[in-house]
TrEMBL record:
GO terms for biological process: DNA integration. Residues 1-50 form the Integrase catalytic domain. It comes from Iodobacter fluviatilis. InterPro entries: Integrase_cat-core (IPR001584), RNaseH-like_sf (IPR012337). This is Integrase catalytic domain-containing protein. Signal peptide: none annotated.
Length: 50
């Protein structure tokens, strides 16, 4: 979980200036989909979780 939290923080949360909480939620939803469906994971040997 700590690695996931660090990834969230450094891959998108700290890289954007958000205007509203709704914008944060929308960005998080899009990022999470990418994280689970397109982004290779080192712990899985470079494959995606899905």
């Amino acid at each position: 979980m700590e690695r996931y939290n660090r990834t969230v923080r450094y891959e998108w949360l700290a890289c954007d200036d958000f205007e509203s909480f709704a914008e944060v939620q929308e960005t998080a939803t899009k990022w999470l989909w990418t994280y689970n469906n397109e982004r290779p994971h080192m712990g899985l040997g470079g494959i995606i979780p899905k």
